[in-house]
């Protein structure tokens, strides 16, 4: 949830909490979200906006080297939570910087991850965990979309659609050359590219969760993510 404070939202948020400790933040943020969403392009708009017509977003070759994660809370201010949700917050932070994600995709992954963690929270407090998760989700849904858009602009190039395939191959090769050379043989690479064609961002997000401990800049938080497989099947061993 890095850099939410750029929006000035955080101070306001803390003020609201201090004045009304019983406030149901989830409900409050949902209300704000509903207000903010009227008059906007609707779901999936973030993706379409990323590049002009006829062009596709592809990752800059070094997109992963700029990724940062700081657990739950805006940059420089870690929210202490006893449930283990920081691993989901780390994932949410990097998701924004994976070229080609939509804001909705990142929010959806964030919720799924927290649901997973709240099934057996470190605190043992199942319900408290879910309340916290709900609060976090409501906050990022409302305040995250501008930041998501800015992160996409940092991470992506726009290229003509017919060059996108080549650029994705180039990116993936560069990535594996750095983090797992055994993936570099041509067949493996081609197979992966064809399997993820059109949803490369989901592959890249998976790769960040798998190899991110090697390159993401973690600020005052353990270098951990939760791997929630894209294709259903939630397995505890992936935590
Ligand atoms: C590298 O990729 C291979 C599959 O080609 C996998 O078995 C191995 O675990 C990976 N290495 C690391 C460090 O993740």
From TrEMBL:
Taxonomic superkingdom: Eukaryota
Organism encoding this protein: Symbiodinium necroappetens
Biological process terms in GO annotation: arachidonate secretion; lipid catabolic process; phospholipid metabolic process
Keywords from the UniProt entry: Signal
Gene Ontology cellular component terms for the protein in this record: extracellular region
Protein known as: Pla2g12b protein
Signal peptide feature range: 1-18
GO molecular function, one term: calcium ion binding
InterPro entries per UniProt: PLA2G12 (IPR010711), PLipase_A2_dom_sf (IPR036444)
